[in-house]
């Protein structure tokens, strides 16, 4: 099937691919990914009809305008919108006095203020001073953002009463806010969001994409703060529900696209929205791998992308059931996968190792951009 023979009701998607080291000397043949450090020379164009892929083809960057000209108006406008969103620079994130630029991947350090986290089991205890010191150490190691959570989201975890969650996170946030660190609160409860913002948090990171608590959208819209919308199949009941996917990559993309539209319609500025495909949440190994292999598709949403794959179960599944404390190599590999795919935020447990890996990756990119023999 050719592009011009596609049904008029087919829904089209663009996934940047065929990445190159440097755009030097390739004007018009390459496009920049989200205003960042990567350039690509082709799109994978995917056509979906009635929930099924009916065509996939590679389209060179320089060919796209001509192909668009031959499409029906609706499909042509969608491809123009997607291509523009894929290349547009992402706005900075305001975090109090700090400005987080998104033209390169940033590391977000995970601070679990819980006794039952899957990753560390409460290794930092419940002393606010000790927890704050762990966050200071992550900042010193290069974390641009500290993501603080007071409720475990591991499979089977008990729901925490919002009052207890507030008691866990607020003392830590207050200490860290005084240091000037950029802070996000990982919660799905409106009352916790309000308390955390009042204590000095800057960003809401919600595994339920503001769909668990009916007041959550209202709280974020009123605060005017950035929010990270993560995909999970059934956020109203919990992050690990769902009954499978016909096409994981397309299904998650469509879900996030609809969720962005829904919260935007209720007063949240699109420039304040970040998205997370939700690796490991209500997804099996093949689902997660499909998302990781197709990460660049999500740039078509026009929002910054956070990747949270650190220490996830998929690493153990690919490496002889390696336990959580032996997943460092896989976590770093997935972080670099995210960096190469243009993800702006990498949410990790192992900050020093990930920061070092990203710095080496950045060094290679910088050399490709400025060190080419002339």
Q: Give start-end ranges of low-pLDDT stretches.
A: none
| CATH topology-level name of the largest domain | TIM Barrel
CATH top level of the largest domain is Alpha Beta
Shape: globular
Q: Helix/strand/pairing class, anyone?
A: alpha/beta
How much of the residues is beta strand, in percent?
15-25%
Helices and strands, in order, run as EEEEHHEEEHEHEHEHEHEHEHHEH
Instruction: Compute the CA-based radius of gyration.
Output: 21 Å
Outline of this structure?
By secondary structure, the protein is α/β, with parallel strands linked by helices. The chain folds into 2 domains: 85 residues, no CATH class; 275 residues, TIM Barrel (Alpha-Beta Barrel). The protein is 36% helix and 19% strand.
Q: What are the main properties of this structure?
A:
single chain, about 375 residues, alpha/beta, TIM Barrel, 2 domains, eight-stranded parallel sheet, four-stranded antiparallel sheet, 11 helices, 14 strands, about 20% strand, globular
Write a structural description.
The structure is a single chain. The protein has 374 residues and is an alpha/beta fold. The protein has 2 domains: 3-87, no CATH class; 93-367, Dihydropteroate synthase-like (TIM Barrel, Alpha-Beta Barrel). The chain is 36% helix and 19% strand. It contains 11 helices and 14 strands. The chain has helices spanning 64-69, 73-87, 128-140, 162-179, 190-199, 216-223, 248-265, 285-293, 313-318, 328-340, 351-370; strands at residues 11-20, 31-32, 39-49, 52-60, 93-95, 98-100, 106-112, 145-149, 183-186, 203-206, 227-230, 273-276, 306-307, 345-348. The strands form 3 sheets. An 8-stranded parallel beta sheet has the order 12-11-10-9-8-7-14-13. Strands 1, 2, 3 and 4 form a 4-stranded antiparallel beta sheet that branches. Strands 5-6 form a two-stranded antiparallel sheet. Strand 9 (183-186), helix 5 and strand 10 form a beta-alpha-beta unit. Helix 3 packs across helix 4 (162-179), helix 4 (162-179) runs parallel beside helix 5 (190-199) and helix 5 (190-199) packs parallel to helix 6 (216-223). The longest helix has 20 residues, at 351-370. The chain is globular, with a radius of gyration of 21 Å. The protein starts with 10 loop residues before the first strand and ends with a helix. The mean pLDDT is 93.
């Amino acid at each position: 099937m050719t592009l011009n023979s596609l049904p008029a009701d087919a829904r089209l998607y663009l996934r940047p691919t065929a990445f190159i080291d440097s755009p030097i000397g390739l004007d018009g043949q390459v496009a920049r990914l989200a205003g960042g450090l990567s350039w690509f020379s082709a799109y994978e164009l995917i056509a979906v009809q009635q929930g099924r892929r009916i065509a996939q083809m590679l389209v060179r960057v320089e060919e796209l305008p001509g192909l668009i000209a031959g499409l029906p108006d609706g499909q042509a406008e969608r491809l123009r919108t997607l291509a523009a969103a894929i290349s547009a620079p992402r706005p900075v994130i305001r975090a109090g006095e700090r400005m987080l630029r998104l033209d390169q991947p940033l590391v977000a350090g995970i601070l679990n203020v819980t006794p039952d986290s899957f990753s560390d089991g409460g290794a930092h205890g419940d002393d606010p001073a000790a927890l704050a010191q762990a966050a200071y150490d992550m900042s010193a190691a290069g974390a641009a953002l500290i993501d603080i959570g007071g409720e475990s989201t591991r499979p089977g975890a008990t729901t925490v009463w919002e009052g207890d969650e507030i008691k866990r996170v607020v003392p830590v946030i207050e200490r860290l806010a005084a240091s000037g660190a950029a802070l996000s609160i990982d919660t799905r409860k409106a009352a916790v969001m309000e308390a955390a913002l009042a204590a000095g948090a800057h960003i809401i990171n919600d595994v339920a994409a503001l769909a668990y608590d009916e007041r959550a959208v209202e709280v974020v819209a009123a605060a005017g703060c950035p929010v990270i919308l993560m995909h999970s199949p059934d956020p109203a009941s919990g992050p690990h529900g769902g009954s499978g996917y016909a096409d994981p990559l397309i299904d998650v993309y469509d879900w996030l696209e609809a969720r962005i539209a829904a919260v935007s319609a209720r007063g949240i500025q699109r420039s304040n929205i970040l998205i997370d495909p939700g690796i490991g949440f209500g997804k099996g190994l093949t689902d997660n791998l499909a998302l990781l292999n197709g990460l660049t598709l999500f740039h078509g949403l026009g929002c910054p992308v956070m990747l949270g794959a650190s220490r996830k179960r998929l690493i153990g599944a690919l490496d002889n059931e390696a336990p959580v404390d032996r997943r460092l190599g896989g976590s770093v590999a997935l972080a670099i996968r995210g960096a190469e795919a243009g993800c702006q935020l990498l949410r990790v447990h192992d900050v020093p190792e990930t920061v070092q890996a990203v710095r080496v990756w950045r060094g290679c990119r910088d050399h490709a951009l400025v060190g080419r023999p002339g």
